[in-house]
Every structure is written in structure tokens, then in C-alpha cells.
């Protein structure tokens, strides 16, 4: 029952009421015959949401919702809707059935990164299906949804990719492909401060001085120009530039070496 404090509660459907100040998305979900779930519920907690997803994600025990902009996630799946916004783990279960692989993984990464749930809690909630187990195996550390997308895409190409690696003298980098190709994924708002821009260039110079290859990808390139970026990364890999030269003195310094 949705019954928030306030005067003159509005009747939404049988057993459900809302005050005049209730969240409009929650009210719409309840009025449509369900509760808020999936990325609509998780976004309220700051979790990554796929680009251009403007549907209202609703979970309805009756298997249908009313409204052209509503999407019913996990119709009829337990637990029966008894609160207006699904618990994060219930919403995550809806999300893995609703989203494609890379966006579903980005949601799970984001939930763990924000400490909304633990990895163990995600395992317990999602590991009972083959899809859930597959997505859990793909989960890793990431500071942004776009970073998760890049990692999933590169691993799908068969590349060895390590996440959130600490390199002495530089600090943490987003991704390392093979042994020395550093891939930094800039968020949409990353360069709004001059300080960030300058620090990035300082870090890039330090990495290059140590022999690393550095590729910096913008938010726009991840979302709208990925094919070109992918071809550039594959060209680097085909030349073997993602590996340390075997006759180079000091090979591998600054970070752990891996095959691939």
C-alpha cells in the first residue's frame, strides 16, 4: 500500500493511496497496476541507467500494465508487489531480464561500486538462473557505466582486460589491455573542471614515459563512435603494441604483467 503522509490522499487503485507530494514516477507505476522496478527504481539510488531509456519500468503481478510509455519487467515474478518501489535486489533481478548484456553488467557494476549491495548479495539474488550466472561472471570493478561497457565489449573480442589497476607513480587507471595498453574512459562530465584536464595530461605523460601506450576515450565515443574506437584498439593489438617488447630493459615495471 502506497500511503505517504500528507493531506487528502489520492486513490490510485484498490488498496493503494498516495499523498499529493508523492513521486510522480512511483504514482504512475502504482496507478498502472504495478510497482517501480528495474532501472527506474535503481536510478533513484544513483545507479547507471542506459542511454535513451525513457520508459517507466514497472513490475506487475498481473502480468500487464496500462500505458504506452510503461514497460513491464518480470511480469508475475515473485515477490508479489507490496511496496511501491522494489528493493534493489528485486529491481536488479528485473534489470537482468530486461537489458542487453553490456547494460545489465554496467548496472550490476554500478550497484556494487555505490555500495548499494555487496557482491555476495548479488550472487545470492541472481545466481539461480543461467543468465544471472553469466552476468555475474562478467561483473568487475568500474567507476562509471561507460567504463563497464568498454570492458565488456573488449573482453567480448577475446582481449585480456584488467580493471581499476594501480600503477606506481600514476595511481589507478581504468583499464589495461594486455600488458601495457592503458584505456581511460572519460565520463560525460569529466572535463568540466580544468584541474581534471591538467591532471589527466600529467598522468598520460607519466605513463608514456614508463613505456605504456595510452588511449583516452570520451563518453561520446563510447556511446556513438564505438566502431571506430574498436578498430583502433584492434590495430594496436595486431601490431603487438599492447605487450612489452621482450628485449626492453625494465619490461613490465609499474604494473603486473599478464598474457594476452
TrEMBL record:
Gene3D superfamilies: VSR Endonuclease. This is Restriction endonuclease type II-like domain-containing protein. The lineage of its organism: Bacteria, Bacillati, Actinomycetota, Actinomycetes, Propionibacteriales. Residues 148-234 form the Restriction endonuclease type II-like domain.
Amino acid at each position: 500500500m502506497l500511503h505517504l503522509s500528507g493531506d487528502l490522499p489520492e486513490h490510485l487503485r484498490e488498496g493503494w493511496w498516495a499523498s499529493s507530494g508523492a513521486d510522480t514516477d512511483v504514482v504512475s507505476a502504482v496507478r498502472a497496476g504495478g510497482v517501480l522496478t528495474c532501472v527506474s527504481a535503481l536510478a533513484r539510488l544513483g545507479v547507471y541507467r542506459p542511454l535513451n531509456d525513457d520508459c517507466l519500468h514497472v513490475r506487475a503481478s498481473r502480468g500487464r500494465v496500462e500505458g504506452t510509455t510503461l514497460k513491464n519487467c518480470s511480469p508475475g515474478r515473485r515477490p508479489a508487489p507490496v511496496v511501491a518501489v522494489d528493493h534493489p535486489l528485486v529491481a536488479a533481478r528485473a534489470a537482468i531480464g530486461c537489458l542487453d548484456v553490456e547494460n545489465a553488467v554496467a548496472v550490476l557494476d554500478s550497484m556494487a561500486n555505490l555500495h548499494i549491495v555487496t557482491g555476495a548479495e548479488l550472487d545470492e539474488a541472481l545466481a539461480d538462473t543461467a543468465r544471472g550466472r553469466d552476468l555475474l561472471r562478467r561483473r568487475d570493478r568500474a567507476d562509471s557505466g561507460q567504463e563497464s561497457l568498454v570492458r565488456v565489449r573488449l573482453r567480448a573480442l577475446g582481449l585480456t582486460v584488467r580493471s581499476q589497476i594501480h600503477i606506481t607513480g600514476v595511481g589507478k587507471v581504468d583499464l589495461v589491455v594486455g600488458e601495457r595498453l592503458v584505456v581511460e574512459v572519460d565520463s560525460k562530465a569529466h572535463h568540466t573542471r580544468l584541474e581534471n584536464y591538467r591532471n589527466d595530461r600529467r598522468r598520460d605523460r607519466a605513463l608514456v614515459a614508463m613505456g605504456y601506450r595510452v588511449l583516452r576515450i570520451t563518453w561520446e565515443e563510447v556511446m556513438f563512435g564505438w566502431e571506430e574506437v574498436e578498430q583502433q584498439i584492434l590495430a594496436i593489438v595486431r601490431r603487438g603494441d599492447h605487450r612489452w617488447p621482450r628485449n626492453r630493459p625494465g619490461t613490465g615495471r609499474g604494473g603486473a604483467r599478464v598474457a594476452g
